[in-house]
Recover the amino acids of this structure.
């Protein structure tokens, strides 16, 4: 095998990052998705647009602003410093926070769609049966939106694994801390170490394909026209 | 051919090109650290020869990959001397066309005035959180930075404070944004319009690192192109040398 210890470290780091980010995204994304699906607030479209921004913005733009915001002269940097947390660029924590922003729409949108396609009816029925709002959310909305959650988790995880531009901007390429898989592949290509680049890149292609295949196998049958009716 | 004849031949080619007044375009891949001087040189070149130079800036490693995949570049101004030599060896560049167009100088820089002293003692103080360098595997200036730290006996002590950019441009960005207090970058990067930009720096003595030779080579796609030959010749002229030096390179 052509992979070096640094390569394996990058693989492990990437999996750790993506797992942690996915958990955080489900925790942060669910309330946002619920609010977007149910609110009549006039800020709904504004919040929806902000959440969707990372889909259209080049990752370098996001990374550039995060670098400035989290740096010692930026507001976020000053707050983290004041709280005694140090500074976020070049740290694993910084990568986690940046990745949550970066992958947020890929988690919020599937969950939001799932909530919305459920319609108001199940919750109205639950209300007439005297379920509290929390009760009906946990026992009615969440189970009905399950396919949306599965899609959200898979996409959030895969998107974080594939993240490159943001990490490049704020990571600092530190082995074991911020040197993730995509950056390591880039390093190998730039250094003309094509054998190692192939080893990692081919692995990533196979991994991504399997993830998407699994996703479509789970959700695909039900989503075909004419099926399930 | 005798050198005199060779010069005469070159002159004849140039004169012929001028007489027929056929302005050609030459496509040039330029190492990112040489962006500012090259823009100036290209403007002078266009004025004096009538040829046009289309400049593409990027990293040498990426250029190598693109050239191997048939990129239409005719001339490569690399950030090192290994890549041009490798391209000649692999038959993608014209043998004998390689020469050093600039020698890079390394500086330790901070945007804060008075932060970096003129002997680099600030490195020994260790009173900083992050020292930015370019990835030594990818950028000759990054390698020079690690060689300097080794020569100073600080490589192990500062290991945990080093952050790496994928290029010296990114290393500078880390420092400019304040995320790293100081960094090793190219002397040319703190020049603007022939003047030094704000901040403080230590020009690292050349004995601490192996010379950063930046070589040029005519690529196979530029073989026989009058404009490519002319630009390669122009880069050896006294006028070009003055511009190159004014941006903090040696020759």
């Amino acid at each position: 095998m052509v992979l070096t210890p640094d390569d394996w470290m990058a693989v492990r780091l990437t999996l750790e990052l993506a797992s942690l980010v996915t958990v955080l995204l489900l925790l942060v994304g669910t309330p946002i998705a619920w609010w977007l699906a149910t609110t009549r607030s006039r800020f709904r479209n504004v919040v929806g647009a902000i959440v969707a921004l990372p889909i259209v913005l080049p990752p370098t733009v996001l990374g550039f602003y995060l670098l400035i915001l989290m740096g010692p002269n930026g507001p976020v940097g000053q707050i983290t410093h004041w709280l005694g947390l140090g500074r976020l660029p070049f740290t694993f924590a910084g990568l986690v926070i940046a990745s949550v922003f970066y992958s947020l729409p890929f988690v919020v949108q599937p969950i939001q769609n799932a909530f919305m396609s459920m319609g108001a009816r199940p919750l109205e029925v639950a209300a007439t049966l005297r379920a509290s709002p929390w009760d009906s959310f946990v026992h009615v909305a969440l189970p009905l939106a399950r396919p949306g959650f599965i899609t959200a988790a898979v996409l959030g995880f895969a998107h974080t694994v594939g993240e490159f531009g943001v990490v490049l901007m704020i990571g600092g390429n530190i082995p074991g801390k911020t040197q993730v898989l995509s950056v390591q592949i880039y390093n190998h290509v730039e250094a003309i170490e094509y054998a190692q680049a192939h080893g990692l890149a081919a692995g990533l292609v196979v991994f991504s394909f399997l993830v998407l295949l699994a996703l479509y196998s789970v959700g695909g049958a039900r989503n075909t026209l004419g099926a399930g009716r | 051919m005798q050198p005199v004849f060779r010069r005469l031949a070159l002159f004849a080619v140039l004169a012929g090109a001028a007489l027929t007044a056929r302005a050609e375009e030459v496509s040039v891949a330029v190492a990112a650290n040489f962006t500012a001087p090259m823009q100036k040189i290209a403007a002078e070149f266009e004025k004096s020869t009538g040829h046009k130079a289309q400049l593409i800036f990027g990293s040498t490693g990426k250029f190598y990959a693109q050239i191997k995949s048939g990129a239409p570049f005719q001339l490569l101004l690399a950030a090192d001397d290994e890549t041009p030599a490798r391209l000649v060896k692999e038959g993608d560049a014209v043998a004998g066309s390689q020469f050093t167009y600039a020698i890079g100088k390394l500086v330790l820089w901070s945007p804060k005035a008075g932060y970096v002293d003129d002997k680099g003692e600030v490195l020994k103080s260790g009173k900083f959180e992050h020292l930015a360098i370019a990835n030594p595997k990818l950028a000759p200036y990054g390698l020079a930075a690690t060689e300097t730290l080794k020569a100073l006996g600080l490589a192990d002590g500062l290991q945990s404070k080093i952050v790496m950019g994928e290029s010296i441009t990114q290393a500078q960005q880390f420092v400019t944004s304040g995320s790293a207090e100081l960094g090793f970058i190219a002397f040319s990067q703190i020049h603007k319009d022939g003047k030094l930009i704000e901040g403080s720096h230590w020009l690292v003595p050349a004995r601490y690192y192996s010379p950063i030779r930046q070589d040029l080579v005519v690529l196979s796609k530029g073989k026989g192109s009058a404009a490519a030959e002319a630009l390669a010749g122009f880069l050896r002229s006294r006028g070009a040398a003055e511009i190159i030096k004014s941006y903090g390179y040696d020759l």
Q: What stands out?
A: The CA atoms of residues 155 and 176 of chain A lie 24 Å apart. Residues 5-219 of chain A form a domain with the MetI-like fold fold (CATH 1.10.3720.10). The mean pLDDT of chain A is 88.
